[in-house]
Amino acid sequence: MSFFPASLEKLIEKFASLPGIGLKSAQRLAFHVLSLSDADAADFASAITEAKSKVHACRICQNLTDREICSICASPNRDPSTVCVVADPKDVAAIERAREYRGRYHVLHGVISPLNHVGPDDIRIKELVERVSDGGVEEIIMGTNPDTEGETTAKYVSRLLKPFGVKVTRFAYGIPVGASLEFADDATLMRALEGRQEI
Questions:
Q1: Are 161 and 170 in contact (CB under 8 A)?
Q2: What residues does CATH 3.40.1360.10 cover in the chain?
């Protein structure tokens, strides 16, 4: 038996479907939204629909942007010969916090995970291979998480890119195995970048 009106139950369900949000957190968020003024609630809904309609993948690196090319790829201060390959856009933000990396990125939007039915064709590996084959890339830094899926993806990409004569390196293990880049501190990320090794 439901304690709440159907529309509130639906709102709670939508919040609960977000990653990391349990039922109690979803209820708190839903009640907070109900406490907003009509104008604030409309702004909140508008922000969601605007982001959904305007944000898309950068033509070059596949990171999220609202332009054709993201600000990192468009910057003349970034080294286009070095490309750090990461699983998700949030990993770009994590590495950028360290303020040590001056190259560009390639976002795969996932990792190879046979248990979750995610293969190489389901993520943006083809775009990376095309980018390397166009020339100008000298080093690929594999910045996927140091877990089973991240290692599998790194090794697969490394094998694909070896025929192009590009140097493929991997983050050093300053980042604990099984941890996520999103939660690594700045100093750990800096040491991981400095100590990267060829694979």
A1: no
A2: 77-198
Residues carrying CATH 1.10.8.420, the chain = 6-54
- What pLDDT score was predicted for residue 1? 45
* DSSP 8-state class, residue 183: G
Is residue 70 a contact partner of residue 58, using CB atoms and an 8 Å limit? yes
Mean pLDDT per 10-residue segment, the chain (199 residues): 82 94 95 95 96 96 96 96 96 92 96 93 96 95 91 94 93 72 78 76
- Helical spans, DSSP H, in the chain: 6-16, 23-35, 38-54, 71-74, 89-97, 125-133, 148-161, 186-194
CATH code, residues 6-54 = 1.10.8.420
Which residues are CB-neighbours of 68 under 8 A, at least 6 positions away?
Answer: 58, 59
Pick the CATH number of 77-198 from 3.40.1360.10, 3.40.50.1110, 3.40.50.620, 2.60.120.1060: 3.40.1360.10
- State the Cα–Cα distance between residues 36 and 161, nearest whole angstrom: 52
3-class SS string, 56-95: EECCCCCCEECCCCCHHHHCCCCEEEEEEEECCHHHHHHH
Are the C-beta atoms of residues 109 and 121 closer than 8 Å to each other?
Answer: no
